[in-house]
Amino acid sequence: MYTPSSATSSRSASPELQSESMQIFVKVLSGDTIPITVPEDTTISNLAHLLSIRTSSPSSTLRLVHAGRHLQPSSTLTSNNITRDSTIHVAGTLRGGMPPKKIKCNYKDCGVAAQRIVGHCGFCEGEFCGKHRMLEDHKCVKLEDCKKECHDRNAAQLNAERTQVIKGI
């Protein structure tokens, strides 16, 4: 049964509920503005979840911006000074970036692109173009070590293949 006293008690309870909740506006990527009524202590991650349900886009791709600042998911509306009738903008995630930088020749004053397979020097770890890919051409700092290593390897192979002279024949 409806009594006037119950009506006044429900009316007095509703302003308290309204003071705890507030209406904010969210401008989505399509340009539409969505009004949302949420409690003042709502976290940004909860708001993003509500928006993902409303806009049917994953909450991980939504970035919320208010007054030019990106809102952290762990913060609340009140900690970001978002008041009643504030507008929050939705921004999409940034994907990609710059294309990968082309590898240039490491030889001084040479800006030509390095060769992909044969342009890598295994001794000085440099990347070189076709003109400077040889050790002598780019003046490799480990050129002498390379020459000594090759000389020792050749000497060891010659000693292993040395034939013995048989005397008396």
From TrEMBL:
A Gene Ontology molecular function term of the record: zinc ion binding
Keywords: Metal-binding, Zinc, Zinc-finger
One Pfam family of this chain: ubiquitin
Ubiquitin-like domain residues: 22-97
Gene3D superfamilies reported in the protein's UniProt record: AN1-like Zinc finger, Phosphatidylinositol 3-kinase Catalytic Subunit, Chain A, domain 1
Listed InterPro entries: AN1-like_Znf (IPR035896), Ubiquitin-like_dom (IPR000626), Ubiquitin-like_domsf (IPR029071), Ubiquitin_dom (IPR019956), Ubiquitin_ubiquitin-like (IPR050158), Znf_AN1 (IPR000058)
Domain AN1-type as annotated: residue spans: 99-148
UniProt feature coiled coil, ranges: none
Entry superkingdom: Eukaryota
Name of the featured protein: Uncharacterized protein
